[in-house]
Amino acid sequence: MTAIMSHTPIGDPALTGLVQRLEQAKNQLDSDDEDFGFLAELLRSRGLQALVQVHSKVNSAKKSMQPVMSNAEDMAIALMKEIHFKNIPSADAIELFAILQSCHLQGVLQSHDSIASKDFSPHLPDIPTEVDEDEETVKIVQLVKSHDPMGATIKQDEQTGAIVIARILHGGAADRSGLIHVGDEVHEVNGHYVVGSTPAHVLQILMEAEGTITFKLVPAGSSAHLRESKVRVRAYFDYDPKQDKHIPCKEAGLSFSKRDILHIVAQDDPFWWQARREGDRSMRAGLIPSRQLQERRIAAQRAEGKAKAKAKSPGGCAPSSATRVKMIHYDAAESEEFDREEVATYEEVARLYPRPGLPRPVVLIGPPGVGRNELKRRLVAIDPDKFRSPVPMTSRPPRPGEVDGRDYQFVDRSKLHELAEAGQLVEHGEYKGHMYGTPLEDVRTLVNAGYVVIVNPHYQALKYLRCAELKPYVIFIEPPPLALLKESRAAAHATSTFDADTTRPFTEEELKKMLKSSQRIQYHYSHCFDEVIVNDVLSSAFTRLMDAIQRLESEPLWVPASWVQ
Ligand SMILES: Nc1ncnc2c1ncn2[C@@H]1O[C@H](COP(=O)(O)OP(=O)(O)OP(=O)(O)O)[C@@H](O)[C@H]1O
């Protein structure tokens, strides 16, 4: 009540008016003093006044409001990097790092950037005033034709024969107009009546049109509004829509290369997803084959490969189909261990930020003899307080000078068997009647103690190591081409690892074997690799490895989405 009587000045005229009206109403209405008091207090409250002020400011500035940047997210990452590399960051810097790292702030920055990079112009000319008599059921939409296609595909409805909008590409001209929806019937394009004609005819009109294109559309019963998904995937194959005979519209396709990160914006069509290349702020999404479609294609390619191999088989007597397919790519003897059934198309990914005190283990994969041990040894030697490698177990007795726990953990064969049975060994094997193995638990212990764990297991160990718990960074160490491989190994007097009992150089045959094995591993496991380092000149390969580890500690990197959720 007192609040009404005491006239504290109110800045906003609308609020002042409301308070005055309230006073008048109070005299006319038979209502509770308490209610009026409450309302008056609310209208005079500083909070509401501030809100109204902000609203008025935003309203008046609306026309001139322009985003100053569209890469706030990149800036935040750059800032985080800068803080990370500071020797002794201040408490404020550490707090800022934590704020920038929070997923909520990242979400806000991401939304800001998408809004900021949207271009809502160009301005369209006025819509013609003459419209159909049945104007309630017809809408006229104008789009400006530019180098960007209209951002929609059309098809002929199988039942009615009408030309309808088949899909709207996210961010394309049609999507941005907000006026065209899936299922809308196209009646006219630039004054050409197209009811009863074919999609090809409509496309012809569109191609010939210049400047503004005017559509007369009958809206779909329920407009299927598109909601943009947040899914990111890593592609495991190259795709060129121009080479794809089955894509509904080649111009609407999105080309990409193996390992590209794609932002999937729509998955409503089981065969054709819509996607943008991550970081590509271009307006329009493009069509890409869905996972289901791509898996079918790979299966069909394999079946075709099998059939061809069968046809070629001498004397018409084909070997077992599984072996035959392997022989197309490799010699069968060495391929038995590969899992032929795995079809890598897309993997859902998310960004993983470096976790202070919990470094990701580094897994070096590669063909035998390529130099993984050498690289690991150099890392541990350069900084033993930072890099550690688990000590393997063996069932063989210690040799003179060998120390238990330093060179090997000397254990009973039964212990190694037990761990192997329980799937608790990263890798294990038999050599000259003795068992060897690296316990998974030892990797865990070192990671939790804050060490950057370096392991160089057999590629099949990826099955155990590549998991959400350990979140490893997998680097494939690749041999250089044969000439350079021969030259570099000879110059360094490299010792062959193919024969453990002698210290002789690699033979040419062994180097060729290394290259072949490298191709095989890459063919089957490249979807597990985060990076490939060519071990040509040892010192450069080592520098690249150190750079990779530094990135790992300072940058958010893409990992399987399940590791982050
Ligand atoms: N870039 C290089 N140039 C010259 N020599 C190299 C290079 N990388 C490694 N070597 C040498 O090649 C030999 C084999 O390397 P290393 O033992 O590290 O192979 P590896 O990949 O661990 O093999 P395996 O998996 O069979 O144990 C060693 O003598 C090593 O010093």
Task: Write structural notes for this entry.
The protein has five domains: 2-57, no CATH class; 72-116, no CATH class; 135-218, Pdz3 Domain (Roll), CATH 2.30.42; 232-294, SH3 type barrels (Roll); 350-564, Rossmann fold. Helices cover 38% and strands 18% of the residues. The protein has 19 helices and 21 strands. The protein has helices spanning 2-5, 13-28, 33-44, 46-61, 72-84, 91-101, 103-116, 173-177, 199-208, 291-312, 321-329, 372-382, 413-421, 440-448, 462-465, 482-491, 508-525, 538-554, 561-564, and strands at residues 139-144, 152-156, 163-168, 185-189, 192-193, 212-218, 232-235, 261-266, 272-277, 286-289, 346-352, 362-365, 387-388, 393-394, 409-410, 425-431, 434-439, 452-455, 473-478, 531-534, 557-560. It has a six-stranded antiparallel β-sheet with strand order 10-9-8-7-11-21. A five-stranded parallel β-sheet has the order 13-18-12-19-20, with helices on both faces. A four-stranded antiparallel β-sheet has the order 1-6-4-5. The two termini are 53 Å apart. It binds adenosine-5'-triphosphate (ATP). Adenosine-5'-triphosphate binds at residues 366, 368-374, 456, 488-489, 492, 494-495, 497, 535, 538, 541. Residues 386-405 are annotated as: Disordered.
Descriptive tags:
SH3 domain, Pdz3 Domain, binds adenosine-5'-triphosphate, 6-stranded antiparallel β-sheet, alpha+beta, 21 strands, MAGUK p55 subfamily member 7-like, 5 domains, 5-stranded parallel β-sheet, 565 residues
